[in-house]
Amino acid sequence: MALLEIEKISVFYGEMCVLRDVSLQVERGEVICVVGANGAGKSTLINTISGVLKPRSGKIIFNGEEITHLEPYQIVEKGIIQVPEGRRLFLNMTVEENLLLGSYTPRSRKKRKENLEKIFTLLPRLAERRKQIARTMSGGEQQMLAIGRAMMADPQLIMFDEPSLGLAPKVVDHVLELIKNIAAQGVTVLLVEQNVHHALELSTRGYVLENGTVVLSGTAHELLNNPHVKTAYLGL
Ligand SMILES: Nc1ncnc2c1ncn2[C@@H]1O[C@H](COP(=O)(O)OP(=O)(O)OP(=O)(O)O)[C@@H](O)[C@H]1O
Ligand SMILES: [Mg+2]
Q1: Domain regions of the chain by residue span
Q2: Do 89 and 146 touch, CB atoms closer than 8 A?
Q3: By Cβ atoms counted within 10 A, which residue in 89, 118, 188, 211 is the most buried?
Q4: Pocket (CB within 6 angstroms of ligand 1)
Q5: Mean pLDDT along residues 184-208
Q6: Pick from 26, 4, 53: which is nearest to 212 by CA?
């Protein structure tokens, strides 16, 4: 059984259809990359899986259980979390307060101490800066904090919406390395990333989304060598 199964979802903003009959499968332990141009529907897809948006038709199944109609907080409790585009930190709070707020569900709250230690091991920078106000951190540090906070929810599936947006190339490498480490800990990853080449390199499989439909899917290797992907997304 796949960890996440999306069956033909269609999502509208008013009368505008932005996802049409999108199907997608994520197996446990995979790193899935969703590739698409600006406006293709990538954030809409992530927000629909998170329950922030509701599909007009289709189904979302997680661990064999339909979650299509659950509220966002219930979906987090089931084990799905997203690191949103733009991070959405509590900027006037400290690093540690931001992290603790990530474990607001009953399930993750029980493991709060243990997970905080795990995150401080994974991200020693955050441990050193636990009392620092989030606003005063650099863009890269804020992204690491946003990822740490998401990990505090103790997810089985973590979704990243353009985590390297606006970051310097060196910092981008750090973020991608961190995503790799998270995957190595057994957390399944769904990644949306502008940096298509790097993203596919750390992925097992990928889907190409164009104008709200999946036009192509395959192993990362297949996509990296696909002529359409090469010209449209890799600039080759
Ligand atoms: N709240 C909204 N109301 C109306 N239309 C929206 C809304 N949010 C997004 N859209 C439209 O839906 C389409 C898909 O948007 P979405 O944000 O999912 O794209 P994306 O692939 O994440 O793009 P980007 O790479 O720029 O982040 C776009 O045409 C966008 O203008
Ligand atoms: Mg987006």
Answers
A1: 4-232
A2: yes
A3: 188
A4: 13, 18, 36, 38-44
A5: 95
A6: 53
